[in-house]
Specification:
four-stranded antiparallel beta sheet; 25 helices; 15 strands; disordered N terminus; 751 residues
């Protein structure tokens, strides 16, 4: 035992520091970190903090008396009895607290990650007693578990990290104080176990990693309005950097002013002469929150009992391929190929027409659009049915409303899928506040609309008579709908008109949503390839036609043609030229020609105000810097892990006896000095190692390998001393770079 103790004093790193008090502090910190990670990311309820105090008492008592087995059994028994009493005294309250916890996890995960997780129980009443009982039992369980694992600090640290990673994967971003507690717990665990080399590079890297993790959680955590605004700007900047930059506002009406201000190339579309006007949609927004449209996510399915609907309707190609399938069932089987090459548009989306019948790239994003993924190239082909028609002129085919005897099995299957999806659509996409409904209908003068076509004409007439189409729109002062229908806005563009039309259709009881993309029109050209620039950026309303699906209705003045306000012209008629989005047809009764932008070559896709521009500029600098720092920290930690593994293997090899010890010592010395010039007297002398030291080392090694007697403790200690002495001489007597190379790259020595 004495020999092993002497050897370990030389081989091992610095002895543990802090003693029993530090170990107790580490255990308590680990318990607090686990509790905070579990609850800090969920909706805050003060009663849950009482559970933290309960567990804290048990954790402190257990850790203080853990050296005494009788005390450990008493504390453990008391904790078990406490948990049983809590559950027995208020079983239904405890069950309610459990249900609330699971539902909070589902709700928060849905909000952050759009998982669409279902509730454990939908209908139950909140109970402060249930919250306390559940959190208290969980805290006691964590306290006792932490106490038992406190001697296995690596395992306890792994548990903390595992819980944190699980929560992050579920979208439950812990609050900043939970991240700080986790970092503090890991630091104290490391200190209590092996001591901490305060002056080494590992210390600084570890502190930087803890600080970086805490700061990251601050930014990820959906806390104050300032943090949410910063996250939004950060996400906007990151997406523009990753996917590419165009001028489409992606539903943000505050960024809509310059959506057509760039003449840069966006798309190249190759299509057959039979295919005419195409609305290629990218972003789709379901709900206007503030002054920004946001997509409808899977929360809608959970909250309205439609969970599992999307996989069901996707079996029939709904809703992306819905109109094409409807047309095919009605006998329209003509198909054409359209090739789209993304030359500068936002690469997040696979731009799709409404008559698409097959696509080979991208992934459906819920019921909204098709998103690009890592395998989606910028060039893709799409199969479409015959050219898009004027949507509001469409009527349902007879088989949709016909007798069941007139329907085929395919038709009945389609109608079953469409009916399930339509129920969801009329729950989600007709929502409008009563005040907005009254304001809109009052603005229209009480005009009735019994059909989508009639509603479209009323909306178009109102927009044409009361607004001026121009790229230089009036700023939104407060709320968009209030300003638009309250006379605060006169100059509008496609984004404004589309947003206002969505809620106008909803006011009339029709399901509608907002869409952005590019309006592609060959303008009668015989060429098959059409170049689409930023001037073709457009926004429009999507309206759900029962039985047919989502179809575009354009209400932007100068982007639709009507020779009679009561009878809109069908754009598919050969005697009516299609509308050119580059040169809108502006007659004497139409609004004035849009103003030209000051700098048509400048892409105004960024922020409008100066403070936001400075923030985004700082983010563009900060993101690469943080990425470099993260890569550097990760590389350094990997380097540290590699060095620790090599040192551990060396020490394990030197735990042998006799001949194996001598061979291991010689192999380590030779390997250490191989890349420094070889293990020779001249090389070692150059680094300050005397010849007698070398000879003494070799004599002991030879004695261990070839001698008949085992080495003494002093001889073994000298061998270990020589290996470390040579390493210190090489690292300290040279440049800083060579010292770093000796210590971390070559890993010479034993410490």
């Amino acid at each position: 035992m004495k020999k092993n103790r002497e050897k370990n004093c030389i081989i091992s790193a610095q002895p543990a520091k802090g003693g029993r008090a530090l170990a107790i502090a580490a255990g308590v910190a680990a318990y607090c970190a686990l509790f905070l990670i579990l609850f800090s990311a969920l909706p805050f309820r003060p009663v849950r903090l009482a559970g933290l105090a309960t567990g804290l008492v048990f954790a402190c008592v257990f850790l203080i008396f853990r050296e005494k087995k009788l005390a450990v059994w008493i504390v453990t028994s008391g904790a078990s009895l406490y948990c049983v009493l809590c559950i027995a005294a208020g079983f239904y309250a405890f069950a309610g607290g459990l249900v609330q916890f699971v539902n909070d996890v589902a709700l928060t995960s849905n909000e952050h990650m759009h998982w669409g997780l279902g509730y454990l129980v939908s209908d139950f009443s909140l109970s402060a007693t249930g919250d306390f009982l559940f959190s208290s039992v969980v805290s006691v369980f964590l306290a006792i578990g932490t106490g038992f694992l406190s001697r296995r600090r690596k395992l306890l640290a792994a548990v903390c990290v595992a819980v944190l990673l699980l929560w992050l994967c579920l979208g439950l971003f812990p609050a900043w104080y939970a991240a700080v507690a986790a970092g503090l717990a890991l630091a104290l665990l490391f200190l209590a176990e092996r001591g901490f080399p305060w002056r080494s590079a590992l210390c600084y890297l570890f502190c930087a990693a803890v600080a970086f993790g805490a700061a990251s959680s601050c930014f990820l955590y959906a806390g104050s309005d300032g943090v949410r605004a910063f996250r939004s700007s950060l996400q906007y900047s990151a997406e523009k950097t990753f996917y590419g930059k165009d001028a489409l506002p992606e539903g943000d009406l505050l960024r809509a002013a310059n959506m057509r201000s760039s003449q840069n190339l966006r798309l190249e579309v190759t299509l057959t002469p039979q295919v005419r006007t195409l609305y290629l949609k990218g972003f789709v927004g379901g709900e206007l929150k503030g002054n920004r449209f946001v997509p409808t996510d899977k929360n809608a399915y959970v909250n309205n009992d439609y969970q599992g609907l999307l996989p069901y309707v996707a079996q029939g190609g709904l809703p992306v391929l819905q109109y094409a399938e409807y047309s095919a069932l009605g006998g329209l089987n003509a198909r054409y190929n359209v090739k789209i090459v993304n030359k500068g548009a936002n690469a997040k989306y696979v731009y799709m027409p409404y008559s698409v019948s097959a696509y080979r790239k991208g992934s459906p994003y819920y019921d909204l659009n098709v998103r690009a993924n890592v395998f989606t190239p910028k060039s893709y082909e799409i199969t479409v049915c015959a050219g898009d028609r004027s949507s509001e002129r469409l009527t349902q085919a007879g088989w949709v409303l016909g007798d069941a005897l007139d329907q085929t099995d395919e038709m009945r299957r389609y109608l079953a899928l469409e009916g399930a999806y339509r129920a969801f659509v009329y729950d989600e996409y007709v929502r409008i506040a009563q005040t907005d409904r009254e304001r809109i209908l009052t603005s229209f003068g009480g005009a009735a609309a019994t059909s989508i076509s009639t509603a479209a004409q009323v909306i178009r007439r109102y927009f044409t008579d009361n607004f001026v189409y121009t790229d230089g729109v009036d700023a939104i002062k407060s709320d968009f709908l209030t300003d638009f229908y309250g006379g605060q806005i006169e100059k509008s563009n496609a984004a404004y008109f589309a947003a206002a039309a969505v809620y106008a259709f909803r006011a009339y009881g029709f399901a509608a949503r907002y869409a952005e993309g590019y309006l592609v029109n060959p303008v009668g050209s015989a060429e098959n390839t059409v170049t689409v620039t930023g001037r073709s950026s457009h926004a429009w309303a999507e309206v759900y036609f029962d039985g047919m699906g989502w179809l575009p209705i354009d209400v932007t003045p100068t982007f639709f043609v009507e020779d009679d306000e009561e009878n809109p012209v069908d754009p598919d008629r050969p005697d009516v030229p299609p509308v050119d989005p580059e040169q809108p047809d502006v007659g004497p009764e139409q609004p004035e020609k849009p103003d030209k932008p000051d700098d048509p070559n400048h892409d105004h896709g960024g922020p409008k105000n100066e403070s936001e521009a400075r923030l985004l500029l700082a983010l563009k600098i900060l993101i690469p810097v943080l990425s470099v720092v993260l890569v550097a920290v990760s590389g350094a930690l990997l380097l540290m892990g590699r060095r620790a593994r090599i040192m551990k293997n060396k020490r394990r090899a030197l735990e042998a006896e006799g001949e194996e010890f001598g061979r291991a010592a010689y192999a380590i010395a030779v390997r250490d000095w191989k890349r420094l010039g070889g293990f020779g007297e001249d090389t070692l002398a150059r680094y300050g190692i005397a010849q007698q030291e070398i000879r003494r080392f070799m004599q002991i090694v030879e004695k261990g390998v070839y001698g008949a007697h085992a080495l003494s403790a002093n001889e073994k200690n000298y061998v270990l001393y020589f290996i470390q002495r040579a390493a210190d001489a090489a690292a300290s007597g040279t440049s800083k770079w060579l010292a770093f190379r000796c210590k971390y790259l070559l890993c010479i020595g034993l410490k």
